Amino acid sequence: MVKWGVIGACGIAKRRTIPEGIVPAKNAELVAVMDVDEKAVIEVAQKFGNIKYYTKEDDLLKNSDVEAVYIATPVCLHASQVIKAANAKKHIFCEKQMAMTVADCEKMIKVCEKDEVKFSLGYLMRYNVYHKKIKEMLNKGLLGTPVMARAQLSCWYPEIPLAWRQEPTKGGGGSLIDMGTHCIDLLEMFFGKTKAVSCFLANRAFNYPVEDTAIVNLEFQNGVIGIVDNCFSIPDASSKNRLEIYGTKGSILAEGTIGQSPGGEVSAYIEKEAKGYASEQARTTSTEEKITLTPINTYRAEIEDFSSCIEEDREPSFTGEHGLWNQKIVLACYKSAGQRKAISI
Q1: Are strands 343-344 and 194-202 parallel, antiparallel or unpaired?
Q2: Three-state SS at 193
Q3: pLDDT under 50: residue ranges of the chain
Q4: pLDDT digits (tens, 9 = 90+) for 81-92
Q5: What is the pLDDT of residues 301-315, one digit of tens each?
């Protein structure tokens, strides 16, 4: 049983990761929480078993009971807090985005290696059972040669005073870095590394200094073309968070698998017989197969996986190097949007 502490306990940690991930995990125990808002962190500590609470990360890191820390603070704080945690010999599970700069990411990796602590990041879309199934289908060649794919994650995120995700110096960007990073990583899980990106950003609904609308085209090293679209400017009920994968033998179409919910709806369309362009039968040979799996909470899955890494002394499935690569892609996207041209990575 790995004993966990949380740094930044009053945001996504309180809403999702603690109640859905750490508390129900079979191999994790919450022993301490920290947040700069003392009133709020006291409420969190009381809600989850009257555990110890702190308002400074240094004090939590001095707690000898804490073996692993979950860091859920604004992106601008990740580098310093990861380094402090590593120096305190705590294993670290950090929310994405990894850091503000490539240099910070590289430093975080080196410090964790030097202090011999395990380090991973919260790319929970990898743990959705449907995404794992889709990866399996692609590996088996059921879609033939993959051609293109689309990953969408959007929501309605209006102007909110002091919201760090709307401040470029705290979050690094808007809808792209907050949600697009998940979509890019998911497509790389399916198709491998990105070769080049082309990105367009806009503010269609709000006037905060980060983008509320983002579109990225990706060229993967294996030749697949990807599309990632992320908006803070679409009402939640109207955003279906679609995943579409197309190949020479069919397609896989999904709704709701991308996001914080564990399930979703997925259908596969596999061509039994390929007809020519002019054939009247060209569209009559595919059948829909609805894929139905038992959902697994992705917050719990990622916490259990990382706890197992500690208990079994193995490398995390998502490493700091993965986070560094994702950072390079996202920064290339912003460079592309600024220069209005494709950027090779």
Answers
A1: antiparallel
A2: coil
A3: none
A4: 999 999 999 999
A5: 999 999 999 999 999
Q: Give the torsion sign (CA, 23, 124, 213, 234).
A: negative
Cβ atoms within 10 Å, residue 219: 17
Query: Residue ranges of the domains in the chain?
Result: 2-122+299-318, 125-296+328-344
Task: Report d(CA 241, CA 179) in Å as an integer.
Answer: 11
**Strand 250-255, strand 265-271: pairing:** antiparallel
Are 296 and 127 spatial neighbours (Cβ–Cβ below 8 Å)?
A: yes
Alpha-carbon distance 70 to 211, whole Å? 28
Measured at the alpha carbon of residue 116, what is the angle toward residues 112 and 120, in degrees to the nearest 5? 50
CA 135 vs. chain centroid, Å, equals 17
Q: Domain 125-296+328-344's class?
A: alpha beta
Joined together, the tokens standing for residue 247 give 């190949």
The CATH class that applies to domain 2-122+299-318 reads alpha beta
Residue with tokens 């039994």: 272
Distance CA 221, CA 244 (A): 19
**Do 58 and 34 contact (CB within 8 A), yes or no?**
no
Q: Report if pTM > 0.85.
A: yes
